[in-house]
Amino acid sequence: MKRGLVILGLLCTLTLSACAGDPQGTLGELSTTLGIDLAQGTVQEAWDDHGGFHGDGARWVVISLAGADQAPAFSQEAGWHATPLPEELEAVWYGLTRETDQGEESVGPYLPEGVSVPQVESGCYFFQDRHREAEDPGDPSNLFSRNAYNFTAALYDAGSETLYYYELDT
Q1: CB 88: neighbour CB atoms within 10 A?
Q2: What is the distance between the alpha carbons of residues 86 and 102, in angstroms, rounded to a whole number?
Q3: Three-state DSSP class for 156?
Q4: CB 153, CB 123: distance < 8 Å
Q5: Shortest CA distance to 83 belongs to which of 154, 135, 167, 165?
Q6: Largest CA distance in the chain
Q7: 88-118 per-position pLDDT tens digit
Q8: Chain centroid to CA 158
Q9: Tens digits of residue pLDDT in 106-165
Q10: CA angle at residue 21 from 109 to 167, to 5 degrees?
């Protein structure tokens, strides 16, 4: 009887710990997704509204890496590239206006309402196209050629030592 109560108590404690939203879980998950070690980071903001029809939604995370003993290694093998951003990702993060035969066309930004990212002068970016029709998941050039968006994007600002992470599934 005593042993059963102890086991029940441990199970309750583990369940409550798992439900507490441990930010280290977020850092570990993003470390795996992005191929970098974020263990020394601090989650500044995080939310996820997936759960819509077929899992549609967005996930937004801001991580401060200021004060970390060692900056993460943003390797090209893991999918990281030095800024400047390609046009498609410029549209995702900031929006852009371009000239067409019909006049000016504004595209983006594709961030959730109320979210903005400071212009990154020095840093790097990550992109993974998770759409089933993506031929090269690391190439954003076909991002706007489909009616649905399923991608993961991250932008690291070396000046502020801040990582912005964004997932969009439509």
Answers
A1: 22
A2: 23
A3: strand
A4: no
A5: 154
A6: 79
A7: 999 999 999 988 888 888 888 999 889 999 9
A8: 16
A9: 888 999 889 999 999 999 999 999 998 888 999 999 898 888 899 999 999 999 999 999
A10: 20
Going by C-alpha positions, the residue among 67, 36, 27 that lies closest to residue 161 is 67
* Residue 48 confidence (pLDDT): 93
φ and ψ at residue 113, rounded to 5 degrees = -55, 135
> Would you call 59 helix, strand, or coil by DSSP?
strand
129: tokens are 């196209």
Higher-confidence residue: 19 or 26? 26
Residues 39, 31 contacting (CB under 8 angstroms): yes
Residue type, 145: S
Q: What is the pTM of this model?
A: 0.81
**What percent of the chain has pLDDT above 90?**
59
